[in-house]
Amino acid sequence: MCFVVFLPVYLATVVGNGLIILTVGISKSLHSPMYFFLSYLSLVEISYSSTVVPKFITDLLAKVKTISLQGCLAQIFFFHFFGVTEIFLLTVMAYDRYVAICKPLYYTTIMDQPVCYRLVAGSWLGGMIHSMVQILITVQLPFCGPNVIDHYFCDLHPLFKLACTDTFVEGVVVLANSGLISVFSFLILVSSYIVILVNLRNYSASGRHKALSTCASHITVVILFFGPAIFLYLRPSSTFTEDKLVAVFYTVITPMLNPIIYTLRNSEMKSAMRKLWGKKVNAGME
Questions:
Q1: 51 touches 83 (CB < 8 A)
Q2: What SS3 class is residue 204?
Q3: Which of 35, 146, 228, 264 has its CA 20 to 30 A from that of 91?
Q4: pTM here?
Q5: Band of residue 50 on the pLDDT scale cut at 50, 70, 90
């Protein structure tokens, strides 16, 4: 039953985010920093979900669910790499909206192409550094049994339970690394949107509506992503029953919801997708 439910969800994640990347790449009307960042966010969403979900789905059909220690460490590395890269990209997208709404006359100067590329590269680099710290902590731990991880994928807190030594220090490092990154990024995002909302008072009704529509999509994605991350990583290393349900939500469900949220609330994206689909249908008929 779970296989039948989660396989279509994963396929929808890949197809939905893939359509966003394709539409932004082809449509000339979407060649702006906002959609540039959105295409990279969609790429990270596909990669982030693919780190966990394919193995999870195949395990649903297996009686004995196994993974090697090397495979487990690789899953942890890429899971945190793409997860923190997404956090930084969401922060960059909030900065982009701040400049567009609060400093519209300087927008094209501040958010030029080299700056956009540097911001994306910085997000990937930040994710890499964060993940390297996590994995260097983990590979030094001795594992001598039991070898059953109480989770549906490899993550730090469940894996620490299998170590044959006290992992209090490692748990504190993870809390400081993952938890504080999530909290500080979330606070930056909230602060930026408070400033944006204050500045929207000077806009016309139509301009305010358009800006709020764009920001609402971003805020929704931020809440869906940061809520579970803060719940799981801003506390000591322990395993709660709710952890697995929360993890399923932000690894399987949230990546699928993001393209729906961005397309349903964005008239420019919907229009570009309709034009792209219309061109493909016409080409097929010819």
A1: no
A2: coil
A3: 264
A4: 0.88
A5: very high
